[in-house]
Amino acid sequence: MAMKMVLRGNMATAYAAKLARVEVIPAYPITPSTLFPEKISEFVANGELKCQFIKCESEHSAMSACIGASATGARVATATSSQGLALMHEVVFIAAGLRLPIVMAIGNRALSAPINIWCDHQDTIAERDSGWLQFYAEKNQETLDLMLMAFKICEDHRVLLPGMVGMDAFVLTHTMECVDIPEQEEVDRFLPPYKPVYKLDVNNPMTFGAFSSPDNYMEFRYAVHMAMESAVKVIDEVFEEFEKKFGRNYQRVVPFMVEDAEVILVTIGSMTGTAREAVRLLRSKGKKVGLLKITTLRPFPKDLLKKYLKDAKVVVVLERNISLGFGGAVYPEIAAVFANAARRPKIYDFIIGLGGRDIVVEDIVKVYEIAMDALKAKKAEMVEWIGVRKDEIEVIK
Amino acid sequence: MNEESLFASGHTACAGCGATIALRLLLAAAGKNTIVCQVTGCMEVVSTGYPNTAWKVPYIHVAFENAAAVASGVDAALKAKGEREGKNIIALGGDGGTYDIGLQALSGMLERGHDVLYVCYDNEAYMNTGIQRSSATPYGASTTTSPPGKFSIGEDTPKKPLAEIVAAHRPSYVATASVGYYQDFQTKVKKALSKKGPSFILVYTPCPTGWRTPSEKTMEIAKLAVDTGYLILWEMENGDRNTLKVTKMPPKPRKPVEEYLKIQGRFRHLMNKPEELKKIQELVDAECKRYGIE
Amino acid sequence: MKITIGATVTEAGSSVRNKTGGWRNMRPVTDLAKCKRCGICIIVCPDAVISMKTREEGPKTDYDYCKGCGICANECPFKAIEMQQEER
Ligand code: SF4
Ligand code: SF4
């Protein structure tokens, strides 16, 4: 029987790594992801997990060691956050280019400066072009499930790309929730050992990380893009198989009360729960509001976004990230889904909850009201920051 | 061609490149059960232009600063799979990728005790990007970022003592070598690989392009560096300072360092500066004295 | 050209497709009468182009790849290798 445990999100991903029988875990501690290497080292110390745990001297080296181990054919996982992910940036791209299915848990945390250890999605958003699959969890159960599924998806020979599972700093990484831990035998049946296509092998010597010229670089990039496109199908298959085996449903984009909705909110991560409350409240007042949660940001779920959003009057994108000098990062991507559509919703962007600022139901109701006013005023575009005390900001004229 | 070479013909290194000789010697000593993890640099670029490779052993290049970390991952993966026995793991970097940008990763690999031999081929500047100075560039050398001029005599700091920094980590084995004394180098490679735990060899490899030396003089210069005491060949075993010994004594009397400097374009501007030549001779004498060389 | 997964080069030593002999200005010519078969030239050649199958045959230079650096001639203890101007 599957076991239930009260776990912090970080620990749930450590359990996922254990259940996945990960062979090598190179890691470097960073708040709020430290519980992952702590729990892994505890598993190793107790003999509960037979894996090589490499206590690295930086995140850059941790990801580099992941690459070396994965290229040798091992199943590999790590965890990081914020500055740690930013320090990895260079090798994050390389892991994807080398087509190594490394899985990484991310405690989504704001980027410096100023330094801040609380939640937003800027760290993973900054890596969205890297060729890594991106999953975002709403609850601790999802961190475990998505991590497990990420191995299967990433290691599929139609994909062979690394994947990251984002969970909101503290809101998920450190908050205790009841998590269903599947049976090892069931997981073994779901997730067979990793079979690399190519690996470092003295009996069949190959060269990894070759130097590419203008004559072939574009083909390699296109190959990664193709793998991302085929990941869509693989993700759907794996989600379906997971539901059959473990009874929990996952979708790349999760709709809530969208059927007749005129206004649809789009969220990522833990704010989804709050947004759901807001939708219920607004529905009780007769407003036709719905909600879409994005679980996989890469590959970008344009098919599902189009399907669910096409009949809405207004799409409200709630973003815990900011591309400074423009707006949120997801907003233009959703806008692009409708760029050439004959009929399309108004799409408004809201920057909210950066650096761990609370997002409460009233904030989301306020967002709804601003969006409705904008619609009435026929505003063509809008990027609005919620709850920012603009009058306190020092400005030199 | 020489079919036995584990580093094949057809690589695109400059004619007379000392580093390629070092790679050939290294692989010949290590044998085919070897996995190589290399940093970005000349030797990577000239050997792996897709769709070709000069390597006949499994090889991975990831980035500039991380060969030691990548090798740590390979070591761990083989251990996890129970396949570590009977294989060598060699991390390979130039002086830029080792002395400078890769020093942290190297220190981590040494400290964690990975069973990896790190070989730094030292040609004393960033050759791949166009001969910029590194912390391995010696005092007085002209590079594209340490040019001599009215207010400059070339590089204004002495070379960083990398092998001694490594020795401070007390690895299983650490040595300096010169491609010119290839038997000494290969003996050291074998010794390093025979020991469990981390080891390090710094091998000195002249670069005809960056040093502005005739291509046929590569081995001669590499020997002259040792014979003048400019480069001291030593080894230390099992992290024990008492084992430290010089493996190749310069002839007595030692050749004057000017003999070594004058055949290299990168030192040409010093030839009419006797006070600078004297200073370099004094630096060499002081270093030799530290190692008990007359 | 096959675009492999991750740009992995699956054929070891395939650089032999690059015939670097075209770079050569000077040609090493070995006088087998002077050569004592010590094998030093084989060891020091940066391009791995010299091989010796039997002592009778002596060292053989593969001009498809020799870049003409002159190290072999410089290092031969018996001055058996001479660098000659390449004629093209
Ligand atoms: S000239 Fe240089 S490349 Fe040619 S055989 Fe001699 S050492 Fe090798
Ligand atoms: S180095 Fe000279 S003597 Fe020795 S094998 Fe080569 S050609 Fe012959």
- From the spread of the alpha carbons, the general shape of chain C counts as elongated
Q: So what's the CATH class of chain B?
A: Alpha Beta
How many runs of DSSP E, i.e. beta strands of chain C? 4
Structural class of chain C: alpha+beta
The termini of chain C sit apart by: 32 Å
> How much beta of chain C, percentage-wise?
15-25%
Bound compounds: iron/sulfur cluster
CATH architecture of the domain at 30-88 in chain C: 2-Layer Sandwich
Name the strands of the widest sheet of chain B in spatial order.
Answer: 2-1-3-4-8-7-9-10
Unreliable residue stretches of chain B:
none
CATH superfamily of chain B: Thiamin diphosphate (ThDP)-binding fold, Pyr/PP domains
Could you name the CATH topology of chain B?
Rossmann fold
Low-confidence stretches of chain C: none
- Any idea what the shape of chain B is? globular
Q: What do these coordinates show?
A:
The complex is a heterotrimer of chains A (397), B (294) and C (88). Chain A folds into two domains: 3-246, Rossmann fold (3-Layer(aba) Sandwich); 253-388, 3-Layer(aba) Sandwich (Rossmann fold). Helix content of chain A is 39%, strand content 18%. Chain A has helices at residues 9-19, 35-45, 59-71, 82-97, 122-125, 140-155, 184-190, 217-246, 271-284, 302-309, 330-337, 361-376; strands at 3-7, 24-27, 52-55, 77-80, 103-108, 133-136, 163-168, 177-181, 207-208, 253-256, 263-267, 289-294, 296-298, 314-319, 346-351, 383-385. With 294 residues, chain B is an alpha/beta fold. Chain B has one domain (18-290): Thiamin diphosphate (ThDP)-binding fold, Pyr/PP domains (Rossmann fold, 3-Layer(aba) Sandwich). Chain B has an eight-stranded mixed beta sheet with strand order 2-1-3-4-8-7-9-10, sandwiched between helices. A two-stranded antiparallel ribbon of chain B has the order 5-6. The longest helix of chain B has 17 residues, at 274-290. Chain B starts with 17 loop residues before the first helix and ends with a helix. Chain C contains two helices and four strands. Chain C has a two-stranded antiparallel ribbon. A two-stranded antiparallel ribbon of chain C has the order 2-3. In chain C, a hairpin with an 8-residue loop joins strand 2 and strand 3. Chain C is elongated and about 50 Å long. The N and C termini of chain C lie far apart (32 Å). The chains are: A alpha/beta (397), B alpha/beta (294), C alpha+beta (88). The complex binds iron/sulfur cluster (SF4) (2 copies). The site of one iron/sulfur cluster has 13 residues of chain C, from helix 1.
